[in-house]
Amino acid sequence: MKLTKMYVSGEDFLLTEYNNLIDYSSLAIKLLNRIKGIGANRLIVVKNNPLEMFIYDDLGKREVFNTNAITCFAKYVFDNEISKQKELTILTGAGRTKIEVAAEIPFVARLNLEKPNFNNRMIYVNDSIDSFGRVIRLNDTLITIYSFNLLGVNTIIFVDNIDDKNMLDLAPQIANHKLFNRKTDVIFVKMIDKKHLRLKCYKPSLGFINATASACGAAYIAASKLGYTRGKVTCMLDEGEISPEIDKKGNVFVEIPAIKICECDYEEE
């Protein structure tokens, strides 16, 4: 079996082409182990005719969608000439997603995250109070949150100090707050200037991670809607940068670089 390892925004992925004889759930558990296997955050299976992406975590569980993963998928398809088109339509667990090859060397993909949805029903909040600019109380602290749906539930919190431990320690309480019936990702944002945002992202199931492209898109939406920025910006992450922008129709696009680390042949003993 041929494997390719890639890196995007603080995450590494193993990619391989689909074979209907393989149990990829079991394989992911073996491959992704960083001691007994090769090691990576996720396994991506590339299926052709039509293009379809399967993602597995280190427990063998299949995931619906991941913006970093689909960027690696696009690079794999492009590098291996599975498709010569620069605009790809990929079937995922979340439906069909379009992604564009924006640059070849170094590789950069441009992904349409579509439009944000500010309806409370889409973030699984039961009341009718506006959740974009809502104030919640945690312990003795009042926090202004900006929540909406962009490929999932996102809650943006603007901070003066991105490394404020007291604020960051509240992330689990915010993510699991009773307001949200299905939890929320929490994205802390520090405005460096009108063109640069510094991010830290917390996911209920994973804890703090290097912010994903969707988190960068969500941060930019909030900053733009509040008048903090406009035009194309750069989101500065713990590892790497991602550049989101909004078109005239309100669709959010992000440009994501991907790097191939290595290729190898894998054979089980």
What does this structure look like?
It is a single chain. With 269 residues, this protein is α+β, with helices and mostly antiparallel strands. The mean pLDDT is 93. Strand 3 (42-47) and strand 4 form a beta hairpin. The protein folds into 2 domains: 2-113 and 257-265, Diaminopimelate Epimerase, Chain A, domain 1; 120-250, Roll (Diaminopimelate Epimerase, Chain A, domain 1). The protein contains 5 helices and 18 strands.
Number of helices: 5
Q: What is the average of the pLDDT values?
A: 93
Return the CATH architecture of the largest domain.
Roll
Segments where pLDDT lies below 50 for 5+ residues? none
Q: Which H/E pattern describes the elements?
A: EEHEEEHEEEEEEHHEEEHEEEE
CATH topology of the largest domain: Diaminopimelate Epimerase, Chain A, domain 1
What layout of secondary structure does this protein have?
Elements: E1 2-8, E2 11-17, H1 24-32, E3 42-47, E4 52-56, E5 62-63, H2 67-79, E6 87-92, E7 95-103, E8 108-114, E9 132-138, E10 141-149, E11 153-158, H3 165-168, H4 171-175, E12 185-193, E13 196-203, E14 207-209, H5 213-225, E15 234-236, E16 241-246, E17 252-257, E18 259-265
Parallel strand pairs: 2-3, 11-12, 13-15
Antiparallel strand pairs: 1-2, 1-18, 3-4, 4-5, 6-7, 7-8, 8-17, 9-10, 10-11, 12-13, 13-14, 15-16, 16-17
Summarize the entry for a quick read.
This protein has 269 residues and is an alpha+beta fold. It folds into 2 domains: 121 residues, Diaminopimelate Epimerase, Chain A, domain 1 (Roll), CATH 3.10.310.10; 131 residues, Diaminopimelate Epimerase, Chain A, domain 1, CATH 3.10.310.10.
